[in-house]
Write a structure and sequence with these properties.
Elements: E1 3-5, H1 11-17, E2 24-29, H2 34-49, E3 55-60, H3 65-70, E4 78-83, E5 86-92, H4 97-105, H5 111-118, H6 121-130, H7 135-148, H8 151-158, H9 165-179, H10 184-191, H11 195-205, H12 213-227, H13 232-245
Parallel strand pairs: 1-3, 2-3
Antiparallel strand pairs: 2-4, 4-5
Length: about 250
């Protein structure tokens, strides 16, 4: 368990800088504070349970009044969580143990997060067992199955994801590959990294797409979602898509 005492002089290095690599939970306390003596063991237990993924820093507010003023500490115990040099979560007063655990859980990757980061098929399937409908896991696994030609299972997984442009886009692409072979060049361009040409070909196909317009729209929106709103292609493509549809 990593627990450190922090002062006005060491706070920047021990908390702000350290939090760029590891979340730091800061416990503002004082010797005379009875509730602090109740809360601190819960903070220490939660820190120990996360095996080095969180650092607990203790600040004696009586001895370090500059920090108390800087963070506007008006009541103790006060707890603040830091990531990347910024406060990302906080609470004041003694909390029940489940609330303390949830506070710490929000700071560290969940088991499903780690499985998605691993990225292999077994890990992705397990992530979906833990969090059904999780979009990033479903899209990654759906993409694997799609590339293997296991389209029915890919669609089953992707269609179970609510409100995900990426999942909808990939599912629509799979359906279009079955029903609209004339779009093969568009999908090949996307796969080859020629995103602009792929989008152009999809937009050009819209006027004569009959009942497939919505699937083409979803594919385009999925690609734009992956590019991000700041990408140079995004704004112009969205304008062209709206013009083609409406």
């Amino acid at each position: 368990m990593t627990v450190i005492d922090v002062t006005d002089a060491t706070f920047e290095q021990e908390v702000l800088e350290r939090s760029r690599a590891t979340p730091v939970v800061v416990d503002f306390w004082a010797e005379w504070c009875g509730p602090c003596r109740t809360l601190t063991p819960m903070l220490e237990k939660a820190t120990a349970a996360r095996e080095g993924e969180v650092v607990l820093a203790k600040v004696d507010t009586d001895a370090n009044q500059q920090l108390s003023m800087a963070f506007q500490i008006q009541g103790i115990p006060a707890v603040k969580a830091f990531k990347d040099g910024q406060v990302v979560d906080q609470f004041v007063g003694v909390q029940p143990p489940p609330a303390v655990e949830q506070f710490f859980d929000r700071l560290v990757p969940s088991e499903a997060d780690r499985l998605v980061d691993a990225g292999d098929e077994t890990s992705l399937r397990r992530a979906l067992e833990l969090e059904p409908g999780r979009a990033d896991a479903a899209v990654a696994l759906g993409g694997m199955l799609h590339r293997r030609g296991e389209e029915d299972e890919a669609l089953e997984i992707l269609d179970s994801v609510p409100r995900s442009f990426a999942a909808e886009g990939l599912a629509s692409r799979i359906r279009l590959e079955r029903e609209a072979p004339e779009l093969v060049d568009a999908f090949k361009a996307l796969d080859d990294g020629d995103t602009e040409r792929g989008l152009d070909l999809l937009l050009e196909a819209l006027p004569n797409a009959d009942g497939r317009k919505d699937d083409i729209r979803r594919v385009v929106v999925g690609v734009l979602d992956e590019l991000g709103v700041e990408h140079p292609l995004s704004r112009e493509t969205r304008r062209r898509l709206a013009a083609a549809l409406y």
